[in-house]
Amino acid sequence: MHLSRDHLREEVLAQLQEIGEVDILVGIPSYNNADTIEHVVRAVNSGFAKYFPEQRALLVNSDGGSVDSTPDLVRNAAIDDYRLLLTEHPVRPIHKIVTPYHGLPGKGSALGTVFLIARELKARACAVVDADLRSITPQWIECLLGPIWREDFDYVAPLYHRHKYDGTITNSIVYPLTRALYSKRVRQPIGGDFGFSGRLARHYLTHSVWSTDVARFGIDIWMTTTAITGGFRICQTFLGAKIHNPKDPGVDLSAMLTQVVSSVFRLMETNAAYWRETSGSAPTPLFGFEYAVGLEPVQVNADRMMENFKSASGKWSEVWARMLSPESFSRLSALAESDGSDFDFPDELWVRIVYELARAWKRDESIRESLLESLVPLYMGRVAGFVRSTIDADSAEVERRLESLCLEFERQKPFLIEQWDL
User: Fold this and answer.
1) Which domains does the chain have, with CATH numbers?
2) pLDDT digits 0-9 by tens, 239-257
3) pLDDT for 191-205, tens place per residue?
4) How far is Cα 280 from Cα 232, in angstroms, rounded to an integer?
5) Which of 242, 253, 257, 323 is a Cys-bridge partner for 360, taking CB atoms 3.0 to 4.6 Å apart?
6) R_g of the chain, CA atoms, integer Å
7) Kind of pairing, strands 234-241 and 286-287?
């Protein structure tokens, strides 16, 4: 399914006709975010006023049918006195559109609406920010839009300082795998807050992905990968701390994990001709002044995650035996039966398993659902081992450990290439 202006509501089309064109646009996808949305909207409006006072600006709230007061809070949020921001009142008025989105429930459908509006209004520089942010400041708008507006980049990925156990899906799978595949070091490829050019928004709309998992949780990695493989100019920008509503990776992330990994594997299949020709990885330009920030702790129950992995090994043993090589399956079985006191999940084994699962996903569509379900306890085992081995490590040491994991993904990439089409 391709998105077209027919997917926009009549009242939105009328607003677009009245607005005409804009220079910059920020989208906020939301669903029941009444506790945080007003702060995010005020930060965006303040960023427009302080850093882009002469540009025609638009804020788009693409809402998933909130049953709380989210839409009303967006409509009513305002800056009472711009002098408090050390800036004049913006030269141009800031427009605002609040609309439900069309399609499958999820962030991807919400952003599809933002892309459509950006195209219709010929926006040059755009950004999207999460609605549950508590750490967003007006400077984020400059950080996300500035490299596009002033330096002609097409895609701006966020770089945050996060607690060492925040973002376990990113750290254990998505970042190292994406880096190895596409040879770009984009540290937060599913960070949630991005900048993108109008031409990249138009490019996104040429793809028919809006009835897939991209429309749910897969949009962030799809945006990053599509920007890389499309040859667009990519950079990162430092945003400080990302403080939002953290989740225990052992409790709340199973659905997100399966849908994100499904999107990653689907993108591997779509872009195989691209990544088969790349090796190693290169740094991505970074904007912004990087500084130390205070971080909120993220509690992880490693013992519970380890027990979930070990107890699930019986249920999924036959599935793993079908999808993994005999050597990997033997080592995994031994790990599941090991004494919990010395439990560890080696980088080398984890990388080999991820590559073998990707190969199995590509070979047999009939096993994809069970493969993704069986990945959940594997992920829990991997995170449990990582947490237990880094419990006393500081953030710098954890980042060094993650760099080693990335290099292991890069080292084993020839195995993936060799096995992909067998």
Assistant:
1) 5-287 (3.90.550.10), 302-417 (no CATH)
2) 998 887 655 444 456 888 9
3) 889 999 999 999 999
4) 19
5) 323
6) 22
7) parallel
